[in-house]
């Protein structure tokens, strides 16, 4: 059984292209050939071989193999105990990243997953999604995310890149937290708890790496976001204030003036309201 799916127009990040299941006859093979999408096979029973980039893998139940786009591969069922497998074809801008998090890459294409029932359940739910009249594509995408999340959860522990120090990782986590939650009420202590480090240690580490404090980074990030919002004439100063984490407009104005040198109102009537000059095709615009 195989089902091919139309090209997704709404889920560019991740979408199924096909899925299926097959009880192979002895010696059944495919390839050598290339695919234009990711194709993940999971072995439900039996045995076979998978060949890629000069390497041969003998595989059985509870294992699988990843075929990456534009890579020549060959696979064949065992002559005595042929495999039965299911497969999921997919693509999208997030596909490679999610596979990498699950420990699956072109250089490491073998999957180890001992929960046959879960894989098969996802397959059955994908088949049953055919009953959906309006939201099948969205449901299939959700099931694919769930499947990959299980593989990530059960996959090998991802270690930090040796070229990237732990300090750099912590600093990036602080920045990410602020960029996602700047509109919420937060303290440096909240950030430290999220990162899982002592507040004083995290502050010292952040200052060493960025030459600014976490508090100052948060303030400037919020004010810069406020400046972007100033261009929307439908938003009042109070609306903007609350949207960047300041419930007190007076405090927001005080902080804004300290950072930008002018009041929010003055900034909006001068900087934010300035006309835009276009230098020409392919060139960045600038305010005049």
Automatic annotation (TrEMBL):
Q: Which UniProt keywords apply?
A: DNA-binding, Transcription, Transcription regulation
* Domain HTH araC/xylS-type, chain residue ranges per copy: 172-270
Cited InterPro entries: AraC-bd, Homeodomain-like_sf, HTH-like, HTH_AraC, HTH_AraC-typ_CS, Tscrpt_reg_AraC-type_HTH
Entries under Gene3D superfamilies matching the protein: Homeodomain-like (1.10.10.60), Regulatory protein AraC (2.60.120.280)
Pfam entry (one):
AraC_binding
- GO function term, MF aspect, one: DNA-binding transcription factor activity
Note whether Transcription occurs among the keywords. yes
* The keyword Transcription regulation belongs to this UniProt entry's keyword annotation: yes
Protein name (database record): AraC family transcriptional regulator
